[in-house]
Amino acid sequence: MLRIALTGGIGSGKTAVTDYLLSLGVVVLDADQFAHDVTARGEPAIDEIAKALGPAVLGPDGNLDRAVVREMVFADAGKRAQLEAIVHPRVRQKMDEAAKRTKAPYVIFSIPLLVETRQTGNFDRVVVVEAPRDLRAKRVLKRSGLDHDTFSAIDDAQAGDADRRHFASDIIQNDGSLQSLHMQIDALHRQLIDLSHEETRSATE
Fold first, then answer.
1. How many domains in the chain?
2. Which end of the chain, N or C, is surrounded by fewer C-beta atoms within 10 Å?
3. In contact, 79 and 72? CB cutoff 8 Å
């Protein structure tokens, strides 16, 4: 089984890519979803986060106030590092456990902060989704209600296109039509299936 990392800047269209991959029957493990799972009410990480960042990060119901956390960590690199040190190891463990349970030819690990967390070496290939910054900002403001300053703070805290390209095995350009995007993904899917078959043959020879 090939371990394929997929990454890209905020608003680049990673979800559009993974949604289409899912429709093709590909196993997709989403780091954001796993991060939500490990920071759900009652999970051990919650107490650690509150201890590190302060009680203001918890709502009256004991749930993590994600808007407060987001504002706090993007204004303070030290607090962001504390949060990542709590959450990221748990997410990696859960994703690895899930991958081991599948027999698929390849598994997609969708990890927005792949480069920033120095995980590129843990994967057989790295797929980067790209789109111009102004287009990414337009998408994010439309879908999430974030303002431009918040988008800029998040985007500036992430790796740049050049940093991601340095580690890229494949690049998907998501600045055109949905048809164009799907054609690129179809080609990548065929390539990864072929590579997986080659790896299996090599292992049995």
1. 1
2. C
3. yes
